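Today's session is about reading a structure prediction critically. Students often jump straight to the picture, but the first step is always the sequence itself: look for stretches that repeat, for charged clusters, for runs of hydrophobic residues. Only then move on to the predicted structure, which in these notes is written as discrete structure tokens rather than atom positions. Here is the chain we will use throughout the hour.
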Amino acid sequence: MPKGGARTRSGPAPDPNALQRERDAGEWTILPAQGRAGATPVWPLTEESRREAELWERLWRLPQALMWERYGQEVEVALYVRRLAEAEEPESKVTVGTLVRQMADSLGLTTPGMRANRWRVDAGQEPAPSARPAAKRASARSRLKVVPGGDG
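Below is the predicted structure for this chain, in token form.
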């Protein structure tokens, strides 16, 4: 068990709607929902498999790819792709799956990873309402019941 230091999932998640505070300083980056346009970067590792090529193409169209490109993370993304393809194999080790999850967090491919990187995807619209409207809750006063003989 690791000791000391901050961890990706430790503490409360940062709130993008919170007022700026000294401890919560830092801006959120809004990523366009349509993702990254343009040519896919050249594969930076040794020979890529067919599955790696498919994953590589798909990942570079995501909104997060704009940030990877900004920070020159082609090698990190390629290593993630290679480990993900390995983790998909039927006989892969559990540790590879754990590594893939950690790498996905680091690249902002998971909800906790997006929060940690302070990235949000701008959908350009409000979230769709749920299929079932929320039930109206009774007031606290109306939920109170009188108990006969309850003098105290």
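Discussion point for the tutorial: The chain is about 35% helix and 5% strand.
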